[in-house]
Amino acid sequence: MVITSTVSPMLIIGLRFFGFWPGVSYSTIHWLSFMSSMLIIQYFQYLYIFTHLKISELTNLVDSLMVTLVYSLTFLKLIGLWIHRRVLHKILVDMDNDWRECINVDQHLHIMTIKANVSHFCSNVLLSINTIGSALYLLGDDVVRFIFPTKDYNVTIRQLPIKIQFPFETQQSPIFEFFVVSTFLHGMLQVWSIAILNGLIITLVHHVSGQVDVICQEFRNISRTTLLYRSSLSSFGILVKRHNRIISFSENIEELFSFIALMQVVWNTLVICCLGFIIILSIHNETGVFALMKTMIAYLAITMEAFIICFAGEYLSFKGKSIARATYETPWYDMPSKQNKIIIFILMKSQKRLAITAGKMMDMSFETFTSIMKASVSYVSVLYAML
Predict the structure, then answer these.
(1) Partners of 357 in beta bridges
(2) Which family does it belong to (predicted)?
(3) pLDDT one-digit tens code per residue, 99-119
(4) How far apart are CA 135 and CA 139, in angstroms?
């Protein structure tokens, strides 16, 4: 099968389902339906938190607060993506145009195909890991109680996969079974939406990376041919246009994910703090290895989500610098003055840093990821000292 897009089929299906893919019929209805269901779940989640706001239920409170914060973060991220959906549509159109151009050049097609394969692999892996991890987390308590039944477990109080407080009785069958299936499926949809957003940013950054590698390849071709004959001004003009498209594409990515990145930094710090606190309480109170493993799965998932967007920003910045290096390594000293002026112009344009920022305030990078982890550990240490 010949790859003709950086976006994987699974990612396209997810974007269509949530109404973000251009040209989808009733996309607004799809998005509003899912967001309305999330609002309803959020109301009952916060109702559960306020009902169990007791020191004696601290572990249960922090656990439910963590899941609620993840829901809230996903809700805000989907709102941000919906507000900037026209930017997303423009990005997808630009990606199609880039693929149409590279099909005619074997070297360019080879580079973009490699990037597309990596992008498809990353998207599928993220979706698989999130699916398995969330299923284990949502059904972990029930599986443990089924395999290792305890004498002190009260069978009259059955727990839903998501800790929510309904204003009516839900313990009787078949109402309880209905809500178990409903909350589990909704929780999985929420996790899939997270995987789709993470897969989308990885896909867009890999597409930019492929276009950068195409420009670097063209500069290497110029280096090999310039000693034989003068490169035409038109070839440099094409490189300038392609470079401008990359800058415009990266600015669209920044606009699309700036608000999402800001929410990611703030919320992930809180969620990682809650999870770290639960892990310390689990070890301190000896709640059991399965409860600890469940919390560790959630901790790794949230940490990975923060790492993905920081890695995307770091990788995008790194690839932007490679254009300046490739431009400088061309034998400009053997070129006519007119072409040297174009080289200088490209070098000046390359100084513009390609980056993803959190609300225009900080760049998403490995340094930012380290700051998130340090802040979370500091908060956990303070909370543990208060025990």
Answers:
(1) 363
(2) Belongs to the insect chemoreceptor superfamily. Heteromeric odorant receptor channel (TC 1.A.69) family.
(3) 888 888 888 888 888 998 999
(4) 6
Among residues 160, 333, 330, 360, which one has the least CA distance to residue 258?
360
Domain ranges of the chain: 9-386
Q: Quickly count: other Cβ atoms within 10 Å of residue 197's Cβ.
A: 26
The pLDDT-based confidence of 341 (bands split at 50, 70, 90) is confident
Q: Is the peptide bond before 9 cis (omega within 30 degrees of 0)?
A: no
Are 369 and 307 in contact by the 8 Å Cβ rule? The answer is yes
105 token code pair:
């050049």
* CA angle, 275 then 279 then 285, to 5°: 135
The pTM score is 0.86
Among the ranges given (98-102, 138-142, 252-256), the one the predictor scored with the smallest mean pLDDT: 138-142
272 in Cβ contact with 306 (< 8 Å): yes
Positive or negative CA dihedral for 65, 67, 73, 79?
A: negative
Residue 225's CB is within 10 A of a number of other CB atoms, namely 12
Give yes or no for a contact between 19 and 31, defined as CB atoms under 8 angstroms apart: yes
Query: Rounded to an integer, what distance in angstroms lies between the CA atom of residue 12 and that of residue 20?
Result: 9
Q: Give residue 185's identity as a one-letter amino acid code.
A: L
